[in-house]
Structures are given as structure tokens and as C-alpha cells.
């Protein structure tokens, strides 16, 4: 077995050395992006062409203004959608939804229907378009459903366009949907997100009306940057921990990591660039607006960034992007990794959730303009968001809570678990002046003189960027940087939208009070903005969020610091949080309770899988390799002594002693891990069980890894059974 493991590593490297970039089926130099973009999407432009005018007008009101869908038009829409899909080669359709598993789910049905005379026809009705019925019994429900209660429904989300997904031997019409139980309870991430969008829109429209602006709907918009790792698939398939857990549970630090800072924005290798090109082509065909690609900080780490879309569409698209990355990576002999910390000792992956609000007329409500101090509307909405983060930071923390993110948050590569707001010097000047009652003036950026005559003069932004902040203003949006690389963005945006909806409600109510009290609109705005900002200054921090100084200061300010998932999810028990989510019709009390249960269960199951995998690898691969090496060392000592009396074996004996001690430590650590993992005195108490996994099992896993990683640096390289960091991170 050891010889096979050794040879497989060597063969993998040999194979990678001979690998050439894979060419895409479409030559991007001969086909423009404009031609490709949206060709597989049943979008507004296409619907305008193929639907009757009255049907399109009705559907447009649903999509753009949030009006209830007229089911009487469903047959016409379904017929047009089917004709288009079949003409493009689709044979099946599926209602794609987002159960609380962190991924998507789908059940495929053929368009074809069989007739009594032995023939078949293509059929797809409005009823089928609007509603599907997948089995709901085996998805996480947190007590909302019993196992025997199998009925669940998918409901077409007309605000997120249907699209055709191409596979090797066929095409499928994919219809984005919400997923609920027989009683209407939300069993997914999409339904609460849609509810939160409605709540935010209602309050934002109300506030804008007070400010003298009539709009029909306000959308939350998101542009989620996606960080990820790519490694050669030959290495991936030799790492049981990556397969089972998505991260390496073992791995000694390589001689070189990211300390040279040479990977970030570096030249993209041809093989990786070929992968990126094909991913982009496939995403363009699906109407996914990818804009930026580059090397990230860690070796073998990369990032892609789209432009803004409405948050429900961005949520659907991000799930498609991750799946597309996996499929295209495999085609190129690569493996895409989205875990927040797949490799210890180098930066992990986040999903920078760029968030804003926009009216149905396309106006960005967080656009400050050149003189934000004179932009009353912007200042009102800025105050709203600052207050939302201060009041509901603990809920935002829940939105990003899961075991993967525990490895990343606060690790000097990502924001800490303390949720704070970064405004930058320009806006901070304005805020300080407003709070002090002075006429504020934002500082002007000016220009940069680089000192080279042949280079152009560069305009300078009025404030720098802060990459350490979990919630940073970045020009005309807030960047929620603390979202994890592997997670669906539905939940963090649901909680963010809801927090902002409550704050919009609060500010609108305060304005109404002051207007009723006799103040004119200008005076009322000045007073409310000043009072709101002054009351919520404690959440603003423009310094380095990584420092102990900030942690100490945040504690003085009373900001919550929920350092791990187990502590963070307890917030869902807080009465004010339950009331908030219920009051704005985002989650009922039962649905909130279900999320708490599911998140704790997910944490427990994840750590249990990691512990079992750690034990299996240690017992079946690492310990045998260490024992084999001990045997070789002992044979070397005996052979040396036999060949030459008096010959020194001190060096070999020293290595043997160290290897033997570490092997014994590893064996003891594995036994302790197995004991800790098997121990469960929680009696069904999920919180108690999760705390044991966090405090006992995770610590025991750490001791196993410590001994194993030390052995990796001593055991003969030819005997080591697992691909090493130096190989996975640099050989691709």
C-alpha cells in the first residue's frame, strides 16, 4: 500500500508536468461576449418578444414592482418558455431550490408526455411552471417537518430568470424557485430572502415618499466576490480529508507559503487562465455578469467578481457560479475548493458581499455624489445603515456563522467576529460635523504625483480602503467582507435586509414625528440624521480591526464579540431577534427556532465528519507510514553495527527516538480523539452537544494534527502517503 501511495504522488506530479491548457469549445476570439451574453436565459428581452403584450405587461409588473403574479397568465408563459427551451435542445426541466444544506437541489422531469395511442408529445403547463412537488422529508427542517411528512412545494420565482443548463449529453431548463412545506413554512434560504426584500422595499418606499420621492419598489442589490482555490485533481483524489471535509486536516507548513507576496495579482498561469476563460463563457451564456478575475493572496487561490444584481438573482447566480466552477475545473483536471480554510497557514476564502439599495428607476440610494454633506437623501440612508449594523450586529453575525468561517474570522486575514462599520476619512469628517452640529465638508481626494514625468496624473480617492473591516463603505455600497467563501449568500442578505428594514422603519417614524411636531422637512432631516448617527457612533471603527487595541476598545463600547458558531447562533434565542424577524414577516418564531436547530446540527455533523476522517487517515495512512519508517531506521542501525563494529549510529538513533516518540504521541492523540468524539452526554440538547464538539473534539483533532504534521517533516518523503502542501499549492 505504501509503495502505491508513493508512486501515485510521483505519477501525479509527472502527469501535471505534461498537462496542457484545455481549449474551450467556443473560441472567445471569434465570438464576442455581447453575442454570448444571456443566450441561454429566458430574460426580459426575450419575454418581450415571445409573450403576448398583456401577459408580458403583467409579468413585468411582478418582476419590477413586486406585484402578485397573475396565475391566469401562467399557461401562456409556460408555453413560450417550453417552446424556447425545446428549440434550444432542452429535454427536461427542473425546479431548482436552495434547501438549508448550503447547496442547491433539483429534480428533473422530461417535457415529454405519453399518449394512449402509443405516441408522445412535449407538454409543460402553467400549473407545472408555477408549482412543483419534491419530497420534503429528507431535507433539514429543524423540527418544522417530521420525517413522515413528505409533502413540500417549490414555487416559481419570476423575479429570477429561468435558464438552460448544458451538460455533456443534454440540456435542462432550470426554473429558480422557493421551497416550502405543506403548511407554507419556509424550508429554504430563498423564501426568507424574498420576504426580507419585500420588508426592505416597503419601508424604503415609505421613507423616500417622506423625502418627496415617489418610487414603486426598492431592491437590495448584491455583487458577491468569490474567492476559491484550485488544485490539481490528482492531488485532490489522494486527500480523503479534502473529499470528506473540504479542507486539509493534516499538512505541515511548506518551506514557502505566501510570505513573498508574489502570488497576489500575479501573472495567471496558462492552465488556470484557460479554466477562467471557459468558466466566464459558460457564465456569460447564463447571463451572469462576471467582471473581474485575478490571483488572490495565497498560492493557488483566485477570485472572481460580478457586477451588481438584485439580491435574489445574485443569490441564485452565485450558487450556479460555484457549481460551474466545480464542473469546469474537473474538465481541466483541476478541483475547485470553496472552504473558508482549506489550507492551514495561508489565507482562507471569503465571499465579499457588496450590498446596496436601488430604486426601480435605477437610482443607487448609497451613492454619495461629489458632496455627500449636501446630499440629504444619501445621509438619511447612511444613517439608516449605520444604525442597522449597530442595533442588529449580532444578527448579522449569525448570518455568517458556520464551522468553516470559524477557521477564518479573526485570523489576521479576515475581519474579526466583531461587527463594525468602516466609513473612511471622507465620510467620517461629514459624520463628525453632523454630530457636532457644524456644517461639514468632505475632504477632497486631490491627485497623486508619482514622480515620473511620462506617467499621467492620477486622481486620488478621498479615503483609503480598509480590508480588515467586516462592513466597509466602499464608495457607493457597503462591503460585507465577513461572509464565508463556501456559504450561500441567502441567509446573510436576509438578515442584513431585515436589519435595514427595521432601521428604515425607525428613521421614517422619527421623521414623521418631527414633521407632525411642526418642523419643516429640512429641519426634520437634519435632526433625525444627527440623532441617529450620534446614538450609533460606537459601531464605527476606521482603524485596523485585527489589532488588540480594537478588540479592547470594542469591549469597552459594548459591541458583541461572538467568536465561534456555537456562541453566535444562540442569538436566535434572543426575544428581540425573534420579534424582529416575525414583525417584518421574514421568519416566524417556529422558523427561527428551526434555523437555530439546523445550524447547531450542521455544526455537530461537520465536526463529527472531520473527527472521523482525522482518525481514519491517522490510523490507516500516517501511522503505518511512521511505523514503516521506524522499521527502516532500526534496520539501518542494525545493519551499520553489523557491518562495522564501533561505527557510530548516533544520528540514526536520534531520528529514530524522535520518530518513535511522535508516533506514540500520535497514537495516544487518536485514541483520545475517538474517545472525545464518541462521548455525548447532551441528552438531545444540541447546544450542549455542539459545545462539546467545539471544546473537546476540535481540540483533540488539533493534537492529532500536531503530532502528524511533525512526523511529516521527519518521515522519508517516499513513504509519506498524502500529497503535501508544497505540491498542492504550487504544482498545478
Could you explain the architecture of this structure?
The chain has 732 residues and is α+β, with helices and mostly antiparallel strands. Among the domains are: 32-188, Roll (Ubiquitin-like (UB roll)); 189-222 and 352-444 and 459-585, no CATH class. The chain contains 23 helices and 20 strands. The strands form five sheets. Strands 1, 2, 5, 6, 7 and 8 form a six-stranded mixed beta sheet that branches. Strands 13-9-15-20-19-16 form a six-stranded mixed beta sheet. Strands 11-12-10-14 form a four-stranded antiparallel beta sheet. A hairpin with a 4-residue loop joins strand 19 and strand 20 (478-480).
Task: Provide a short characterization of the protein structure.
Among the domains are: 32-188, Glutamine synthetase, N-terminal domain (Ubiquitin-like (UB roll)); 189-222 and 352-444 and 459-585, no CATH class. With 732 residues, it is of the alpha+beta class.
Write the layout of secondary structure elements.
Blueprint: H1 2-17, H2 33-36, H3 44-50, H4 53-65, H5 74-87, E1 90-96, E2 108-110, E3 112-114, E4 120-122, H6 126-130, E5 131-132, E6 152-156, E7 163-167, E8 170-181, H7 190-210, E9 218-224, E10 226-232, H8 233-236, H9 240-245, H10 270-285, E11 290-295, E12 301-306, E13 309-310, H11 311-331, E14 334-337, E15 353-359, H12 376-399, H13 403-406, E16 421-422, H14 424-436, E17 447-448, E18 458-459, E19 471-473, E20 478-480, H15 490-516, H16 521-535, H17 548-557, H18 565-568, H19 575-583, H20 589-643, H21 650-678, H22 686-712, H23 725-728
Helix pairs in contact: 7-15, 10-11, 12-15, 12-16, 14-16, 15-16, 20-21, 20-22, 21-22
Amino acid at each position: 500500500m505504501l509503495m502505491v501511495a508513493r508512486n501515485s504522488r510521483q505519477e501525479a506530479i509527472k502527469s501535471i508536468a505534461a498537462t496542457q491548457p484545455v481549449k474551450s469549445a467556443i473560441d472567445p476570439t471569434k465570438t464576442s461576449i455581447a453575442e454570448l451574453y444571456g443566450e441561454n436565459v429566458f430574460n426580459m428581452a426575450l419575454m418581450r418578444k415571445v409573450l403576448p403584450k398583456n401577459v408580458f405587461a403583467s409579468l413585468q409588473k411582478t418582476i419590477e414592482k413586486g406585484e402578485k403574479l397573475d396565475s391566469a397568465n401562467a399557461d401562456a408563459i409556460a408555453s413560450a418558455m417550453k417552446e424556447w427551451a425545446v428549440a434550444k435542445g432542452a429535454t427536461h426541466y427542473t425546479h431548482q431550490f436552495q434547501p438549508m444544506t448550503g447547496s442547491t437541489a433539483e429534480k428533473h422531469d422530461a417535457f415529454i408526455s405519453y399518449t394512449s395511442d402509443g405516441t408522445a408529445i412535449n407538454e409543460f403547463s402553467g400549473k407545472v411552471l408555477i408549482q412543483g412537488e419534491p419530497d420534503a422529508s429528507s431535507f433539514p427542517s429543524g423540527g418544522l417537518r417530521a420525517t413522515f411528512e413528505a409533502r413540500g412545494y417549490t414555487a416559481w420565482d419570476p423575479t429570477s430568470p429561468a435558464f438552460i443548463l448544458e451538460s455533456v449529453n443534454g440540456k435542462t431548463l432550470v426554473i429558480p424557485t422557493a421551497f416550502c412545506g405543506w403548511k407554507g413554512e419556509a424550508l429554504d434560504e430563498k423564501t426568507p430572502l424574498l420576504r426580507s426584500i419585500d420588508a426592505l422595499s416597503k419601508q424604503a418606499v415609505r421613507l423616500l415618499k417622506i423625502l418627496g420621492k415617489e418610487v414603486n419598489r426598492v431592491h437590495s442589490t448584491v455583487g458577491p466576490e468569490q474567492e476559491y482555490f484550485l488544485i490539481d485533481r490528482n492531488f485532490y483524489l489522494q486527500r480523503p480529508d479534502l473529499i470528506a471535509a473540504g479542507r486539509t486536516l493534516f499538512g505541515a507548513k511548506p518551506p514557502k507559503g505566501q510570505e513573498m507576496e508574489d502570488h497576489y495579482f500575479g501573472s495567471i498561469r496558462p492552465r488556470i487562465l484557460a479554466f477562467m476563460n471557459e468558466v466566464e463563457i459558460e457564465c456569460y451564456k447564463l447571463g451572469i455578469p462576471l467582471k473581474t478575475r485575478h490571483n488572490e493572496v495565497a498560492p493557488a487561490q483566485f477570485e472572481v467578481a460580478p457586477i451588481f444584481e438584485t439580491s435574489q438573482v445574485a443569490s441564485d447566480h452565485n450558487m450556479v457560479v460555484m457549481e460551474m466552477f466545480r464542473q469546469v475545473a474537473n474538465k481541466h483536471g483541476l478541483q475547485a475548493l470553496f472552504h473558508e480554510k482549506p489550507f492551514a497557514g495561508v489565507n482562507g476564502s471569503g465571499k465579499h458581499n457588496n450590498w446596496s439599495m436601488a430604486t426601480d428607476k435605477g437610482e443607487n440610494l448609497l451613492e454619495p455624489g461629489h458632496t455627500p454633506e449636501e446630499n440629504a437623501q444619501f445621509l438619511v440612508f447612511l444613517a439608516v445603515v449605520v444604525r442597522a449594523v449597530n442595533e442588529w450586529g449580532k444578527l448579522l453575525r449569525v448570518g455568517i456563522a458556520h464551522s468553516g468561517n470559524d477557521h477564518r474570522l479573526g485570523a489576521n486575514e479576515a475581519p474579526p467576529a466583531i461587527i463594525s462599520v468602516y466609513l473612511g476619512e471622507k465620510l467620517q469628517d461629514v459624520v463628525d460635523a453632523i454630530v457636532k452640529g457644524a456644517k461639514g465638508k468632505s475632504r477632497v481626494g486631490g491627485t497623486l504625483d508619482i514622480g515620473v514625468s511620462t506617467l499621467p496624473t492620477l486622481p486620488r480617492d478621498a479615503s483609503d480602503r480598509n480590508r480588515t473591516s467586516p462592513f466597509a463603505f466602499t464608495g457607493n455600497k457597503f462591503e460585507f467582507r465577513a461572509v464565508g467563501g463556501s456559504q450561500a449568500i441567502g441567509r446573510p442578505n436576509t438578515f442584513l435586509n431585515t436589519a435595514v428594514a427595521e432601521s428604515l422603519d425607525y428613521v421614517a417614524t422619527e421623521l414623521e414625528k418631527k414633521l407632525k411636531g411642526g418642523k419643516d422637512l429640512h429641519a426634520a432631516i437634519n435632526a433625525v440624521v444627527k440623532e441617529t448617527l450620534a446614538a450609533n457612533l460606537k459601531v464605527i471603527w476606521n482603524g485596523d480591526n485585527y489589532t488588540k487595541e480594537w478588540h479592547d476598545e470594542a469591549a469597552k463600547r459594548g459591541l458583541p464579540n461572538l467568536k465561534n458558531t456555537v456562541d453566535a447562533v444562540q442569538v436566535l434565542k434572543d426575544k428581540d431577534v425573534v420579534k424582529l424577524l416575525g414583525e417584518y414577516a421574514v421568519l416566524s418564531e417556529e422558523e427561527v427556532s428551526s434555523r437555530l436547530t439546523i445550524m447547531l446540527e450542521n455544526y455537530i455533523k461537520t465536526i463529527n465528519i472531520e473527527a472521523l476522517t482525522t482518525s481514519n487517515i491517522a490510523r490507516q495512512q500516517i501511522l503505518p507510514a511512521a511505523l514503516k519508517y521506524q522499521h527502516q531506521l532500526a534496520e539501518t542501525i542494525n545493519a551499520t553495527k553489523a557491518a562495522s563494529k564501533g561505527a557510530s549510529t548516533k544520528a540514526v538513533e536520534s531520528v529514530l527516538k524522535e520518530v518513535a516518540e511522535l508516533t506514540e504521541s500520535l497514537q495516544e492523540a487518536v485514541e483520545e480523539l475517538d474517545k472525545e468524539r464518541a462521548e455525548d452526554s447532551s441528552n438531545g440538547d444540541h447546544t450542549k452537544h455542539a459545545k462539546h464538539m467545539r471544546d473537546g473534539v476540535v481540540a483533540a483533532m488539533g493534537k492529532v494534527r500536531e503530532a502528524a504534521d511533525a512526523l511529516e517533516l521527519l518521515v522519508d518523503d517516499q513513504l509519506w502517503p498524502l500529497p503535501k502542501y508544497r505540491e498542492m499549492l504550487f504544482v498545478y
